[in-house]
Specification:
- The chain has helices at 2-19, 24-34, 77-84, 131-144, 148-154, 182-186, 195-208, 210-221, 262-286, and strands at residues 37-43, 53-59, 61-62, 68-73, 87-93, 106-117, 127-128, 157-171, 177-181, 227-234, 237-243, 247-252.
- It is an alpha+beta fold.
- The longest helix is centred in the last third of the chain and has 25 residues, at 262-286.
Amino acid sequence: MANDVDKLDAESRAADKAAHRGEPALDVLHWLHETGHGVLGTLSTEPAVEGFPTGSIVPFALDHLGRPFVFIANIALHTRNLRRDNRASLFVHNGNASGDPQSSWRASLNGHFTQLSAAEDADEHCEQVSEDEYAQLLARYTQRVPKAGGYARTHDFHFWRMNTIQSIRYIAGFGRICSFAGQDYLAHCGADQFAEMRAGALSHMNDDHAQNMQEICRAFHSVEAEAVEMASLERTGCLFRSSGPDGYHYSPFANVVEEPSEFKSEIIGLLKRARTDQRQQLAHGVD
């Protein structure tokens, strides 16, 4: 028995070492950028299975700090579960993998979810956010789930965000497995990452490329704005703020920026895709 335990420990150490030959936390940022939905695991409040894990498929988006958030209805079981115990997991995997699914990547983020509200009379258990922050969250979410704006108007839906990411279980395929602190992941997403380059690029875009940002908003968000400015520049994309009409619009990059110099190429790529999209729309209209 002791030999079996020693063997398992040795295998676990080898898998952890293999995983850390790369950057697991950065890999997870890539995966969350690529994936629009996951499995939300909550602790059931149903009497017959109280305390058992319950999984639900949910779309999710990321805030400016890389924290995942979901938009869920009051009536949903996972909402009732989170109100009782806000410990939960978000599991994502490679939906494009073929063959043995265990040979591809997957990750489970474990943490605490908090309901967000911009209402002045919000429940004391909610985190109060400004109307401006709520609008930014909705812009990020509707980029992935375009119909979500209708949910907000006609149903009792609320944002819940994984404010605390306790740990992440990382599997990049056979023999590359580890667990690490959520803070290691968040360190890749925060304002300190490439701060100088981001600030410079943001100023440059707002000073010299207002028309290009109007093109992007026209193509991807169907907004014919009088003016557009870049409100936030992140490793995963841009948040634009338009006026006339007023609103926020999020456009993701094709890739996560890994080096400061890549911001320029990703922004150019975004503009090129916007122009291609506009040409296709015009051609379709002529047809």
